[in-house]
Specification:
This protein has about 200 residues and is α/β, with parallel strands linked by helices. About 35% of the residues lie in helices and about 15% in strands. The protein has a single domain, classed as Phosphoglycerate mutase-like (Rossmann fold, 3-Layer(aba) Sandwich), CATH 3.40.50.1240.
């Protein structure tokens, strides 16, 4: 059995201004670096063998801060953990997306099914490398949200519940299957980026 702490990266300036980041590589700001340190402190009591991250710099730096505070090597970048690509919506706020595309599909936006497929494959691979171990994985709100919704049959996140920058969510990988152990949501998060209308149901 592999324990996985899935951490959302710390805040960026685009998070603060509520702009959709997706594949755009926006770095952490100072608040985000503090959030990464806080996440590391919260994880410090656990038995962790390695840190992995999305290749995007906001996740990679969050992972580096966590790894340093846990006394572990720098995180290894995993392509499958990158944020969902939002195409022409990147750099826009939710209201700007609604105004510009008026409910039509956003050109270049990656499907939820695609995000799930690559994230699950990445976590399966990491679990094989770390059987009977614990790992910290730093990713993004879109990736974590897709996994949580799929594993909870859409019960989580509850309406209005958001994924905090720097929050850690616990999963277990056992006998080839991933399970959600503990989801830490918040009713309000001014740092959160994303459009609640973008919650596309995913079938198993």
């Amino acid at each position: 059995m592999t324990r996985i702490a899935l951490v959302r990266h710390g805040q960026t300036d685009w998070n603060r201004s509520r702009r959709i980041q997706g594949a755009t590589d926006i770095p952490l700001n100072d608040v985000g670096r503090r959030q990464a340190r806080d996440a590391a402190d919260a994880l410090a009591g656990g038995d962790w063998g390695a840190v992995y991250s999305s290749p995007l710099s906001r996740a990679a730096e969050t992972g580096s801060i966590i790894a340093a505070r846990l006394g572990l090597p720098d995180p290894v970048a995993i392509e499958g953990l990158a944020e969902r690509t939002y195409g022409q919506a990147e750099g826009l706020t939710g209201s700007e997306v609604r105004e510009r595309f008026a409910g039509a599909p956003v050109p270049g936006r990656e499907s939820t099914e695609s995000v799930l497929a690559r994230a699950l494959a990445a976590l399966d691979d990491l679990a094989e490398r770390h059987s009977d171990d614990g790992i910290v994985v730093v990713s993004h709100g879109g990736v974590i949200g897709a996994l949580v919704r799929w594993l909870s049959d859409e019960r989580l996140p509850a309406p209005g519940m958001l994924i905090l920058n720097g929050s850690a969510h616990m999963f277990e990988h056992r006998d080839g299957s991933l399970a959600l152990v503990d989801f830490v949501g918040a009713d309000e998060d001014l740092d959160m980026v994303g459009d609640p209308d973008d919650r596309i149901p995913v079938s198993r």
